[in-house]
Amino acid sequence: MKALLLHEPNTWQSMRLEDVKIPTLRAGEVLIEGEYAGLNPVDYKTATNGNPNWSYPHILGLDVAGTIKAVADDVTDLRIGDRVLYHGNWNEWGGYAEYTRAKAHMVVPIPDGVSTK
To answer: Cα 102–39–47 angle (5° rounding)?
Structure first.
């Protein structure tokens, strides 16, 4: 998949699209094909100094809307094809990528009458 990678602290101005593996699901998670990702000030401000919990390269992007493409075996309240949004965990890879994973309890459905365009 393509992702916008941060290779080290304070290099967010020079991030570029690169190929990385699609994240594999862990218990309690869903895989989301991202359609929209917000530029949250936390993303670029934290990228300036880095985070001691990150390994590099790191993918920023806390706020994501998209469609569920896979669910872990223990996730029972979400389905493939659900349109969802979430605010991610900044210690995990974020949503500036084609796919991202999220804890199912952090995901909320986008109601049918709400457009994401």
So the answer is: 85
